[in-house]
Every structure is written in C-alpha cells, then in structure tokens.
C-alpha cells in the first residue's frame, strides 16, 4: 500500500516535471521571438492600397469571376481590415481568460505562472497592434466601414461559458492563426509587405500560445466530471454558434461597404454572390480552417466521447457546407 502510494507519488512528480518543462520551453521561445510594435513590425510604414492584403487562399475572391483584378484587391483589403478587427476582438477575451487561469498557478508551479503571464502580456500587445492597424486603415479607406460587435460584449458572453469550452475555442483560434500564415499568407508573393509582417510577427508568438492552450485545456479536461463535460460540449457548440452569428452580421456589413465603395453597380445576382462569398470566406477563416486543423481534431477527439463528437459535428455541418 505504502509502496504503491510512493510509486504513485513518483509518477505524479515526474508528470508534473514534464508538464513544467513544457511551460519552460514556451518561456524560452517567447523570450527568443519577442518583438516591438514600432521597431519591428510597423517601422514607420503605411499601407499601400495598390497591394493585396488578405491572400486568395483565405479571401476566396478568385471564386467570383465577374470581379475585375482591382475589385478583387479591394475586396481583399476589406477582408484584411476585418481580419485585424476580429483578431483584436477575440484577443480581448483570450487575454482575460489566461489571466484568470494564471490564478490556478499562483501558489503552485511558478514556471507555469510565468508562461501564462507572458501569454497575457503578449495578447495585450497584440490588441494594441491590431488597434494601430485598424486606425491606419480607417484613416486611409473610405468612410462607411462597420464593426458589428464590441470586444467587451463578446468577452462577457464567452467568459460566461465553461473553461473547457473557452479553451477549446481558444486553442482552435491560435492553431488556425498559424495555419493561415504558413499555408496562405507566407507563400503569396504579391501581398502588402506591411500586412504580411503584421501576421508574421503575430504568428511567431501565437505558436507558444497554442502550446499553452493545449496544456491548460488538458489540465481542465482531467478535472471535469462526466456531467460537467456534457455541459462543456454544449457550451462549445453555443460558442461556435455565437462566433457564426458575428460572422453572418460582419459579412453582410462588409458586403454593403464593398458595394458602396467599389465604384460601379452590380446586378442583383452579383450582389448576392458577393454576400455569399464573404460569409463563406469568413466561415472558412474563423471556424472551418480551425476545426479541420489535424492537431485540433486529434485533441478534441481525445477529450470527447463519440456521441459528444457527433453532437459537435452536427452543429458544424451547416457551417462547413456553406
Ligand atoms: Fe495574439
Ligand atoms: Fe494568442
């Protein structure tokens, strides 16, 4: 009995040591890649509107054959503006949630605590970067752009859900951020260099965030009872529906903005095509590219039962099928 208890204690302390070394790795990487908004990212530059912002792999603008090259570029710029806005929006709740979770380590693993404090600090910096980018775009683009949701209202709604669901959503977002940069932004040669740098620098800090999301998500998962997990899955489905609600409204607002500034009239069918394209692109950017990320799929499958996965997939089906 005593030997068993000792063995268990041994196993627990080596598991904790492994966990602690994973937190330590993120601190090391975070120190190595750390950047400054002005000195490294913006460097006194302004946006050049003869260039594309969001790459075609994300904006999907090439799917609309009736748009001219200049119109595709303009639609990529509208979507790029929304990309900065949506990231600033979600990072409000992410930073607060990570600060809240750091409380679980206050009198525990100080390495984990430092990792989460750095994570929150980086998200505050990212929010400032996106506010700066939004302000630059506002100065240079025609008036009429509408943001459909307030970051604090969204954060209040998200933070009211169970921690398991919030971490699942966050892990999803921080993994797709990396996929977007590596698969779409980095490979496209004719993108705005300033826009590309914003997302390159953002990406190098998001790598650590996704690792920390996973550590915290797995810790939270181990704590939940079966009933709490059922509720957490329901919460995750509700969160995805809430994100989708924002995307539906923002895609309508961005379609109206684009139609107002494009400088020509479109047929009713073309206008409907632009609205549908924006919703499809936003769902791809903010939901589908995340849930189809292989690592996210693996984590979610490991942490849910088959009926729970079926519930999640049924909720996602209409969004994926857009
Ligand atoms: Fe970020
Ligand atoms: Fe992040």
Comma- or semicolon-separated keywords:
single chain, 322 residues, mainly alpha, 0% strand
Query: Care to count the β-strands?
Result: 0
Shape: globular
Helix content: over 70%
Which regions are unreliable across 5 or more consecutive residues at pLDDT < 50?
none
Helix segment tally: 12
- In terms of DSSP E residues, the strand content is under 5%
Chain-averaged pLDDT: 94
- Based on secondary structure, the structural category is mainly alpha
User: What Rg do the Cα atoms give?
Assistant: 21 Å
The biggest beta sheet reads: none
Q: How far apart, in Å, are the first and last alpha carbons?
A: 58 Å
The bound ligands are:
fe (ii) ion
- SSE run: HHHHHHHHHHHH
Q: What is the topological layout?
A:
Elements: H1 2-33, H2 37-42, H3 56-59, H4 69-102, H5 110-140, H6 151-159, H7 163-185, H8 193-223, H9 226-261, H10 268-291, H11 294-302, H12 306-320
Helix pairs in contact: 1-5, 1-8, 4-5, 4-6, 4-9, 5-8, 7-8, 7-9, 7-10, 9-10, 9-12
Please outline what is shown here.
The chain is built from twelve helices and no strands. It is an all-alpha fold and 322 residues long. α4 packs antiparallel against α9 and α7 (163-185) packs antiparallel against α8.
Question: Could you characterize the architecture of this molecule?
Answer:
This protein has 322 residues and is mainly α. The protein contains 12 helices and no strands. The longest helix has 36 residues, at 226-261. It binds fe (ii) ion (2 copies). One fe (ii) ion is lined by residues 91, 123, 126, 202, 206.
